[in-house]
Amino acid sequence: MCVLALLVKREFYGYELVQEISKKMAISEGTIYPLLNRLKHDKFVSTYLQESTDGPPRKYYKLTDAGKKQLADFKQDWSGFVDIINKFLK
Amino acid sequence: MEKVKTKQEYLKELKKNLSSLDKGEIDEIFLDYEGHFSEGLKSGRSEEDLCDSLGDPKTIAKQMKVGVIVKKAEFDRSATNIIRALLAGMGLGFFNLVFIIGPFLGLLGVLVGLLAASLAIFFAGLISFFVSLATLISPDLFTSYVGVASGSWTLMFTSIGLAALGNLMLIGSWYVAKWFYIIIIKYLKLNLKVIIGKK
Lengths: 90, 199
Known about the structure:
The complex is a heterodimer. Chain A is of the alpha+beta class. Chain A has helices spanning about 1-10, 15-25, 30-40, 65-90, and strands at about 10-15, 45-50, 60-65. A 3-stranded antiparallel beta sheet of chain A has the order 1-3-2. In chain A, a hairpin with a 7-residue loop joins strand 2 (about 45-50) and strand 3 (about 60-65). Chain A starts with a helix and ends with a helix. The mean pLDDT of chain A is about 80. By secondary structure, chain B is mostly helical. Chain B folds into 2 domains: about 5-95, no CATH class; about 105-195. Chain B has helices at about 5-20, 25-40, 45-55, 55-75, 80-90, 95-135, 150-195. In chain B, helix 1 runs antiparallel to helix 2, helix 1 packs parallel to helix 4 (about 55-75) and helix 6 (about 95-135) runs antiparallel to helix 7 (about 150-195). The model of chain B has no long low-confidence stretch (mean pLDDT about 75). The interface of A and B includes residues 22, 29, 38, 59 and 74 of A.
């Protein structure tokens, strides 16, 4: 879900995305790729290759419409959930 | 296990553990990891550091495989696919063995029991139907074995009822088996979410 939220801002290539996430969360860098792979199978993200100025072409990840919808749904669920919890914590 | 320290070793190990997947799938995964190494090296990190931060290639390969195989089982419901998905799920660790095999065997037991019961009722009905039919046609055929020859009309309708009930139960358990399949897939996905932490 965090991956989708990052991708809604702009398109990332794998390494960049991994750095972005591991900056914010303690997560093994290697586990992000299986996650991306599954998001791709779920058709929430799509990928394309783009030449980079130096080195081999980069595999970019892009949010699909289904991914955007999924993210919107999640946002709604999440804020609903947080509201409920907050009511108890007050 | 010896620790993997170079890009080459890492990718080799990954490939070895992914070998059961399609070629296209493996290539796709490799694009990610090769990219990771080339970008990482460009930004001045060492191969060893990159291997470390990626984590055990075997674990990665397992996570990739479970994702792909469960997805496959979801679209193509066959016994082989579900068993493969189960095995892949179990590959994630002993912890999961308990959590996957336990409910799976439990549900399977219920299913087999239901099936056996409905078959038994169906055949009991069928057999008593023929017995009652036979006693109707020739009343003294079974009288020496079965003491119910007199009420054979009742027996006959009861047996038709039994056979019909058995049949209904068979159809019912077929639906249960279908749900069972769907539930197992859902469960495996949930399991994955817990392990990999999708959301």
